[in-house]
Design goal:
mainly alpha, 2 domains
């Protein structure tokens, strides 16, 4: 039996037995749509209600609160060099980890920037 990673996560979250599902993907692979279309009753009603509340709040936020997006160009040469030297020392830092640390330190120094 073949199952996609996404479908496996969905099945686990919804406590669905994948043995009872017929896959509709290539080579009868179980895909996310098969899990979502499954009518089996889940024992995780509290979790489902929580997820529904989160989804409702997210939709409300996206639909009713104005959003704006900012873009800028940044010279990343120093970051690339820092990451390269750290990698040679055995420290494998991701770009996200380095950026998040930098942002946290910047907000620590410039707390007014974090007030909105």
């Amino acid at each position: 039996m073949f199952i996609s990673p996404f479908a496996k996560v969905l099945a686990k979250e919804r406590s669905i037995n994948i043995e009872e599902i017929q896959g509709s993907g290539p080579l009868n692979r179980i895909i996310g749509r098969d899990i979502l279309n499954n009518n089996t009753v889940s024992d995780n009603s509290k979790v489902n209600k929580l997820r529904q509340a989160i989804a409702k709040a997210t939709i409300h936020s996206k639909q009713n609160i104005p959003h704006f997006y900012l873009n800028t160009k940044v010279n990343m040469n120093n970051l690339l060099q820092y990451r390269k030297t750290q990698k040679q020392k055995g420290n494998k830092y991701s770009f996200n980890a380095i950026l998040m640390q930098s942002i946290a330190l910047a907000f620590d120094q410039f707390s007014d920037a974090n007030c909105f």
